[in-house]
Write a structure and sequence with these properties.
single chain; alpha+beta; seven-stranded antiparallel sheet; 15% helix; 33% strand
């Protein structure tokens, strides 16, 4: 009988999310190889604080620049999710759905940067969690399961 090798990089099930674990290992390697580091903040959706969340800004903080990437993840209860989504819609974010997932994307007319499909900053709401990235395509790099 053979067993699969143990992946020492996989966080324990009870581990807390960090800027290095919410995104894929390859993304972390690509960012750090450019000399980028991360700074962690609380995750807010407008004026709604996600108690069990984090926002990560990745950049080269040794050089003044507006170039960086943002990734966020957090757990949300139903009430917090509903409040945040209602506030995003009130503030002009564009709502869409794909299966059970709900997306809120900033109006592309006001976006600083967009992905190749024209999406800027985007929140993805699932069952008990929310993701955030500076583009909708960037959400694919967040693989934290919580």
């Amino acid at each position: 009988m053979t067993t699969a090798p143990v992946d020492d990089e996989t966080p324990a099930a009870d581990a807390d999310p960090t800027c290095e674990t919410i995104i894929t290992k390859g993304t972390v390697e690509a960012l750090t190889s450019q000399g980028w580091t991360s700074r962690q903040q609380e995750l807010r959706i407008g004026d709604t604080l996600v108690e069990e969340g984090l926002m990560c800004m990745w950049a080269d903080f040794s050089t003044p620049s507006d170039h960086g990437q943002m990734y966020g993840w957090g757990t949300v209860d139903e009430r917090t999710s509903e409040t945040a989504q209602s506030n995003l819609q009130r503030d002009g974010w564009l709502r869409s759905t794909e299966g059970d997932l709900v997306y809120f994307t900033e109006d592309p007319d006001y976006a600083i940067a967009t992905d190749e499909d024209g999406f800027g900053m985007t929140y993805e709401f699932g069952d008990g969690w929310v993701k955030f990235a500076d583009t909708k395509q960037g959400l694919l790099l967040i693989d934290w399961k919580g």
